[in-house]
Amino acid sequence: MIVVRRTLFLLLAVATAACGHNQAKPIERIQAMPPPKDDGKPAEGNNKSGNEEHAAAMEQLKVSPAAPRDDKQSSVLINLPDAEHWMRVRFWGVQSLVGFRYGKDHHAIVGGFVTHVPDNKVQGACSKSFEEYAKPYIDNFDVNLTVQEPKAFAWQKEIVEVVVVHAKIATMLINDEYSAAFASYPAWDNACLIVGLAVPSRGDMDRADAVRDRFVAEVFPKVSITSKTEPKERY
């Protein structure tokens, strides 16, 4: 399971590697505020917004009401806090069913991926299939991980496992600590949906953890499959 967790986290991190960041001191008090309007263009270079904008964006994700956002094929609904400020994006070098970034400077990222198995009701089958899918993307990366005990919740008469991760990556492309979590869903016949969140700390891990904890408690359990058959397109 450690390899699987490492695989998902790195896949999300590698997908946004263009926005590596330096560490900074956390800000004790700041007003919640959404990031500036996202123009939808690729991010270029390192974060330019500063630590205050990132802290304010994380505060916004902690308190904003959630609303559903879907993929282009209307197959999945994910209830995102401050939904209007998430931009649907493609990940760098990684195909996904759906991807979102919160602000052009990637204050948080959400990814949805589809894998295939002979029987997605078998315990661990979805996680193992995702490991095999993602492994080619991350073989050249290394990461220091702290993995919490898995949590579980009831989802459409199934039990879905949620994994919570702290990770530190220091490479030429990525230099930051992240709070992350992901869940694996038996979504369609012989197919699994993997939904993951990664929040860069940028020196403020407590806020990043608070955003992650809200996703674990409120977002992942409410993921909804709206298509009876597996969507065919990947982006």
Task: Outline the secondary-structure elements.
Elements: H1 2-15, H2 51-63, E1 66-70, E2 76-81, E3 86-88, E4 98-102, E5 109-116, H3 125-138, E6 144-147, E7 151-155, E8 158-170, E9 175-188, E10 191-200, H4 205-219, E11 224-225
Antiparallel strand pairs: 1-2, 2-11, 3-4, 4-5, 5-10, 6-8, 7-8, 8-9, 9-10
Helix pairs in contact: 1-3, 2-4
CATH homology superfamily: Mog1/PsbP, alpha/beta/alpha sandwich
Gap between N and C termini: 27 Å
Order of helices and strands: HHEEEEEHEEEEEHE
Helix content: 10-25%
Derived structural class: alpha+beta
Shape: globular
CATH overall fold name: Protein Transport Mog1p, Chain A
CATH C-level label: Alpha Beta
| Rg (CA only) | 16 Å
Task: Please name the defining characteristics of this protein.
single chain, 235 residues, alpha+beta, Protein Transport Mog1p, Chain A, eight-stranded antiparallel beta sheet, three-stranded antiparallel beta sheet, 4 helices, 24% helix, globular
Question: Could you characterize what this model shows?
Answer:
The chain is of the alpha+beta class. It has a single domain, classed as Mog1/PsbP, alpha/beta/alpha sandwich (Protein Transport Mog1p, Chain A), CATH 3.40.1000. The chain is built from four helices and eleven strands, in the order ααβββββαβββββαβ. Strands 3, 4, 5, 6, 7, 8, 9 and 10 form an eight-stranded antiparallel beta sheet that branches. A three-stranded antiparallel beta sheet has the order 1-2-11. Strand 8 and strand 9 form a beta hairpin. Helix 1 packs across helix 3 and helix 2 packs parallel to helix 4. It is globular, with a radius of gyration of 16 Å. The two termini are 27 Å apart.
